[in-house]
Design brief:
The complex is a heterodimer of chains A (283) and B (321). With 283 residues, chain A is mainly alpha-helical. In chain A, 73% of the residues lie in helices and 0% in strands. The chains are: A mainly alpha (283), B mainly alpha (321).
Amino acid sequence: MNKFPRSLLILSYLILILASVLVLYPVLRVVATSIRPFDRIMTYGLSLIPDDADLSNYVRLIRDTDFLLWLANSLGVTAVTSWLSVSIAAMSAYGLTRRNFRGRNAVLISIFLTQLIPGSVLIVPTYLMILRLELVNSFIGIIFAYSVSGITFSIWLIRGYFRGIPVEAEEAAMMDGAGPLRIFAQVLLPQAMPILAVVFIMSMLGGWSEFILARFILIEASMFTWPLGLNRFTGQYRTLWGIYSAAAVLVSIPAAAVFYAMGGHLQEGLARGSGGGLGKASR
Amino acid sequence: MKTVHLILGNSASVIGAGLGVSAAVALFLILIRQIAVRRNQPDATMTAFAILPVLALGITIGFPLFYTVILSFGNMDLFHFHNPDFSIGNFIGHIVEIFTRPILRNDGLGIIFLRTLIWMLLQTGLQFMLGLVLALALSAPIRGKRMFQTILILPWAIPGTISLMTLRYEFHPTFGFVNLLLSRVFPALGGIPWWSDGLWNFISMNIVGLWLGIPFMLVMILGALRGVDPNCLEAARIDGAGRARMLISITLPLIAPTIVPAMMFSAIYKFNEFGVPFFMNPQGLESSQLLLCLALVNVGILFLMVMLVLRFRGMHREILR
């Protein structure tokens, strides 16, 4: 290869540094606000690190608000729904991969088409449905809705993975007299652990910060998940900016940590899922 | 103490609800299996598994969609909420109303639709262009490649709700850092009315939409660039192609099969986007509000999109495989 031109190299650095600043500045500003003493939140300054940083906002957040309750609600809902979501998606993918039946293609196409339906169209009828079924202020509705919301994509990913697993082991198990349920649980699933982990984490990250559906279903303050609670801090007329920032830092750190820990897997899975699902890409 | 009590109570009901949903799923599976066994179908269990997603998506998506169509025949409003009447006349009246009367306080369908279209095209186009610029900069022989990449996908790693609630406030005309920064650099500009002027509000939505959306596109483009065979580029260089020429004639066509579907997905997503306009418009400005819930028209657009995607041979082949 010929030498990379110096001007382009400098340009690359400039672009990357500018973009990094644009990405980092708002994030760091939230962190900075969270450690600024409570009485000096509203500031006209742009500097990031305050001279007299303390943790008073964190203390107030935990002592004076229901943040821990919201966090516990979110954690419970997210954990239960991720588990359900992976189970439903894995079972569906198994049925749709290893068995050829009439109408399988119709099922596949129709579940794919549901992904194209705009969520905003469904808001009003879903709300009416929730009202009629008296699911307002109950966890059942939200758990079911969250469990199902991401399964199309999950089925796609898991199905792609199942297809890559040779069927010989399953056939051998069948010869030995194992039923389909047993083959699924003891032969297929252990081999598919990597993709199941990816799907589990994706479903966790999705449910962790969902706002709109929760807003409809959970009206009572003691049942709030954290996005609802935090939205209360940042109303138009009254903003508890320091406390909000502290909460934002506390809920973002675990999500970002999980995201980066998954790193390559998630991106690979996504690239394979959508690329493989739509074109001949990456294969 | 009260909090601990509530946490325990809520956890119990969450777990209870989870068990309830699991039980419903299990019951459904057993039921379908029994039916399949009765009808002497082979692999009854598998059939039950395969039908499971249809039921689940039918409840959360199919039924509301069906209900939308039903409601379009009714006259449900504030005064007829509990006992609406249904008739063909209502349906025709609604259709006429959608096209002739304003949907929001002042704006009619045409202008809202146009605005949404502009939003979609701007977002998808800029997302791709800026993502491509960043991806090309990252593929240059630079130091700290990993560090830059980690930083640049940060908006994807942060929960979306947090980013939106934070950035909404950062566009506050007086206290948000955007205006603070601008007034330092260009004092003549004065405070930009991000919250009260329709056009500026729309611009702020676009900035935030890009901030949130570029990392996804960047990762996609980086993945696609990795698949480009360096030999092709080398051959082009030997034939005397410049860098711009190589980018346009070799790299872009080679990454297109990956990127075009991703852009299509992104365009659909942006067209239906609710979060960014909802959060970035705290004063409910009409002149920058996007299409919110126009069931019928949206369904029409949806079919258009579906056809576009279905036309993509690759996907079709993938489904039928």
